Amino acid sequence: xxxxxxxxxxxxxxxxxxxxxxxxxxxxxxxxxxxxxxxxxxxxxxxxxxxxxxxxxxxxxxxxxxxxxxxxxxxxxxxxxxxxxxxxxxxxxxxxxxxxxxxxxxxxxxxxxxxxxxxxxxxxxxxxxxxxxxxxxxxxxxxxxxxxxxxxxxxxxxxxxxxxxxxxxxxxxxxxxxxxxxxxxxxxxxxxxxxxxxxxxxxxxxxxxxxxxxxxxxxxxxxxxxxxxxxxxxxxxxxxxxxxxxxxxxxxxxxxxxxxxxxxxxxxxxxxxxxxxxxxxxxxxxxxxxxxxxxxxxxxxxxxxxxxxxxxxxxxxxxxxxxxxxxxxxxxxxxxxxxxxxxxxxxxxxxxxxxxxxxxxxxxxxxxxxxxxxxxxxxxxxxxxxxxxxxxxxxxxxxxxxxxxxxxxxxxxxxxx
Amino acid sequence: xxxxxxxxxxxxxxxxxxxxxxxxxxxxxxxxxxxxxxxxxxxxxxxxxxxxxxxxxxxxxxxxxxxxxxxxxxxxxxxxxxxxxxxxxxxxxxxxxxxxxxxxxxxxxxxxxxxxxxxxxxxxxxxxxxxxxxxxxxxxxxxxxxxxxxxxxxxxxxxxxxxxxxxxxxxxxxxxxxxxxxxxxxxxxxxxxxxxxxxxxxxxxxxxxxxxxxxxxxxxxxxxxxxxxxxxxxxxxxxxxxxxxxxxxxxxxxxxxxxxxxxxxxxxxxxxxxxxxxxxxxxxxxxxxxxxxxxxxxxxxxxxxxxxxxxxxxxxxxxxxxxxxxxxxxxxxxxxxxxxxxxxxxxxxxxxxxxxxxxxxxxxxxxxxxxxxxxxxxxxxxxxxxxxxxxxxxxxxxxxxxxxxxxxxxxxxxxxx
Lengths: 417, 417
Fold this sequence. Notes:
The structure is a homodimer of 417-residue chains.
Chain A: E1 2-3, E2 38-41, H1 57-70, E3 74-77, H2 84-94, E4 101-107, H3 110-118, E5 123-129, H4 132-139, H5 143-159, E6 163-169, H6 176-188, E7 193-195, E8 201-203, H7 210-219, E9 226-229, H8 236-245, E10 250-253, H9 267-277, H10 279-285, H11 291-301, E11 319-320, H12 323-331, E12 349-350, H13 359-368, H14 375-389, H15 396-416
Parallel strand pairs in A: 2-3, 2-10, 3-4, 4-5, 5-6, 6-7, 8-9, 9-10, 11-12
Antiparallel strand pairs in A: 1-12
């Protein structure tokens, strides 16, 4: 593999050659918040629910600090009621003086809310399940009781000068009329925004689809809306985007998506999506070059590897292999790259070591190595690389050796001729 | 962590308690093909373009056989023009007598098409870039020349009694009018279906969104439509679903999504999505219990780990940790699971080893260990587990030891009392 330094227009911010005539250009939608979305980063709450997570106080402080420097709007912490150390850590993080606001996420009852306020948080997320599944098998409360409790708790939190949000868990399996009735009551009580956290518009089980999300969020329009999407069916990033298009304002993320089961919308994948959809806002608001370090630090804390196919930071996210792709990338990276890797401090690679390698990629490598060969000679040496690539996996040294040896043989011919 | 055997209705196929009243139930859409989608499995074509791939003939035959047994409709192979071994392997796989049809994927020119037909494939995918990016920087051909060549090649392939498909690469950055003009001409020539492969409706660069996909595919309705989505911005699964909802008929996948860059719609993630959207069709058509073995075999061939957060087969996809989740899951798994793991031959786990563990999960473990404790005693032992969980990561043995020791102490108190 060889790095390239090809200078070319940024595929994200450069004007598209078709922009005047293509009907695929996103039409501005008056509901859409894709150009002013906010992030509620939940690695230290949802992420603590990931199977492998055990965060020490030191890890929590470092993660919170990195996320604040990255530019997320809110950092959400595990409920201080969960354990004595959770309580202490919540207080500690509130005292760090970070740029991001600090939230905690508690059950919708007065005891939990009081503990949260005690810790000095900027905001409290109240959460309760509203689907018949959760009402029957989790807390056993009626919608009337949920509403009554919610109003009391909201009143208390507000009286303490703390921002409050109300989240209905499992929104997508809740009854729409009941849900809207509840939101209406809560909204009158002056909650800072409608939340759909582990609900509100929270897809707690990960079963929602983009069109379901669009329809529900659009129905709730007119208020601030947070969204929370689990990734059980692989739609968490697309659902977050579609939610913004329909008028949602806040997206819950965690680093690498860590959370219950296989997790939620990953911060990095969301950045990949939003740097394409809203390049100016995303590039100016978030320190994208920090992403890799943040992911690597969290991965080391929870002892996982960065997934091989992770957007942006997966080891081959900017590697091009097939001959057709490599040829065009060398001429203009926008041909096969929707994201400019340099925005994230990364580089692209062109693989020249397989049976599907094309001669244009080999030509580029030959030039990098400082040799001058004709196109016919390059096609000949490409055939040799492909022949070897049919037999076994090749390293970049192997391809280089074939090129060196071919070039040497040429010169010897010249000398002996 | 402890396995549970809770008997409960399958969350996918069981009638939803809200189904009569919930407005979120998917409304049948006359364009939608979610209940009759077909899979074009491209691990042996797109997957060969993955950075780490080097498939021997033996690996290719084993992968093709597993995929055919799994139930995919088509298996797509690397162009036989790529290398001598690619040509031989294509012939070998065609002779295996698999249930799946065998396709190969070639550049839209006569030489490549002839080589493909020689190999004995059931179908040929012709591919050419139609965006201005690819026309300028890849092949340099005008739309007129593309159309002329396509018609000649299609005519030839059809005359040989071989199925033919035509794919325009980078469809989402192509001019809509030019694209429709090309499809119309090709359609008249009698191509079996409109293809959007590395195009057609191929999102070659991974930048499309669900709503873009819905709009474009709906515009092409009335013909059979294949879709191909790259995952650079994390939307490949959602885009595939939305394409089907808009009238697409075929989805390209690869095992674990392997392909150029970070790959395409993964077969497993698509199954997670479709078993929720169309349970009857998906369960009856595909041998879902083979998924894990297929993923593990391909992962070993290309030397990657299954991503920790993979839908279904990620190590913690069915692990429940937070107290609220665990309590409800024990009462009814549908509360926090949209997919029944047993459909894939897998089981769920309830974690009881952290600071966020709840007493209901501990109660279940106490019962599994054969002890009889009161709820107050269980809350006491839960506090001890949480106390330890505040200090360090716990294994399941640690939690069990705390329970054993607590129980022992109780009995000693009784004896000495």
